[in-house]
Fold this protein.
Amino acid sequence: KNQVEQSPQSLIILEGKNCTLQCNYTVSPFSNLRWYKQDTGRGPVSLTIMTFSENTKSNGRYTATLDADTKQSSLHITASQLSDSASYICVVTPGDNTDKLIFGTGTRLQVFP
Amino acid sequence: KAGVTQTPRYLIKTRGQQVTLSCSPISGHRSVSWYQQTPGQGLQFLFEYFSETQRNKGNFPGRFSGRQFSNSRSEMNVSTLELGDSALYLCASSLVPSAHEQYFGPGTRLTVT
């Protein structure tokens, strides 16, 4: 069964610290993997998209990595800011032309001053 | 360029009623997808429309339906509302079907009492 699992479920860090969020998936075949940031009460906003041939992609202080062999991805946030407090959702697109995205349940990050 | 807009933003209905939610995609985008988001289940795919045709459907009962108009605007309808339908309903648009970059709207918060 195609699944996307994220860990941890929630995370609290202090402003200025780094953190890493994990995403493991069992989707096969695989087309691409995306990370979204969702502020409370808002729609998700895309941070990065990686195809199976890419192993890292950066967007400012956000760096996503992908290991297609182990089916793992991580999102690293550098020098966290209060505005990073949000849910981070990992989404996998299967490569079977169904176009049905598979969503993880997200990691809730809280950054405190 | 205006983003994805959804109306209404908030809605309160009682059990047994029906509701219609509206989504206007980004200008030029022809694909619209709908998602239900609840705290326990995360984002779940409802259906996707492209050029007025439903391309994909998630595992939701027939009470959930949708349509897309010739101007790419989309509506979803939920009939005979149940308490469990309380959720954030998100619409996402893309140039072509969902395997490509999706842009989410702010969502409609539906509360069923």
